[in-house]
Amino acid sequence: MSDAHRDAEATRVVRAGLPPEEAYAPPLPGPVFAAHYHLPGDVDGAPYTYGRDGNPTWTGLERAVAELEGAAEAVAFASGMGAMSAVLFTWLRPGDVAVLPSDGYNLLASLRQRLEDFGVTVRTAPTPGDAQRELLAGARLLWIESPSNPGLDVCDIRALADAAHAHGALVAVDNTLATPLGQRPLALGADLSVASGTKALTGHGDVLLGYVACRDAGLAAQVRGWRKTVGAIPGPMEAWLAHRSLATLEVRTARQAENALAVAEALRDHPEVTAVRHPGLPGDPAHALAARQMSRFGCVVSCTLEDREFAERFLAGLRLVGEATSFGSVRSTAERRGRWGGDAVPEGFVRLSVGVEDAGDLVADLRSALGAARRGELS
């Protein structure tokens, strides 16, 4: 990414979704807490009617997300799972076929089971090699996750979207790991860009949120109808915190991407570590394709240690990196991913979420913890 482009993005995210300037008003209005609104007369065309249908604080955030994703409209949800469920259950009916990644976010397995319980046929294939392409005949919806979580594999979004559309399928992309500053799925041909705003979008580990960014207003209306029916609405405080956090999205994700590459390079060269993955790492199996469709490579690095016990000693020995799930926070975290089950990873597989700390300090912390793990130390 050129410096000029990065500067332009930094300016864009600082102002995304803000209302027109008004004398003596705050640049970002505070959260609106309302279960109902004054509603005289006919409700047709009323901008706000009831608290489950809309909220001015959501509106500001949704406008900002739509601008960043290059979408016609965006719809905010209480969580990433709320957003994912809205897409899958809005368009899929008994007898339909959905194509999902077999190596995606582990709760996709729960959604797959529910879809199958409702009579939807679910086909799965791994992310690398565009393997989902072979399963598209007769499909109603293709779900892509690129980069995948936790394996960090990448697929060709444009090629898969073109193939899916040729079969009449709708295309949704989980853009959580990349963020809209790292990847624009709609520009690559997808119909829907879905993300957990809990992660890097908000970036402070204090908000649960999700969104669906839609290519056209008709798709957004259907997603919004699902949200109203099931009540998967974000709180106004969460929506306001998310919108506030967007102002630093560019500087946070730029620093995290730089730090993640430094961490990946250090781990790649360490004798205790194998199978280091990061899309920005030259030589990574996903790097060439990622470089064509991503403008930055995210904050997540994965690697494999000797076994479960070694990994647990390593995590216990970290001082700057906290042991926690999720990713995208300004504070670095790591976890042994196998503790949750559901991911096809070795027992010593570690997923790191790299924050905005000093890169040298992070690398020193990781090396120290690896040394302590080799010596059998456990704090």
From TrEMBL:
Its EC number is 4.4.1.2. Belongs to the trans-sulfuration enzymes family. Residues 1-22 are annotated as: Disordered. This is homocysteine desulfhydrase. It comes from Streptomyces boncukensis. The keyword Lyase applies. It comes from the Bacteria. Pfam families: Cys_Met_Meta_PP (PF01053).
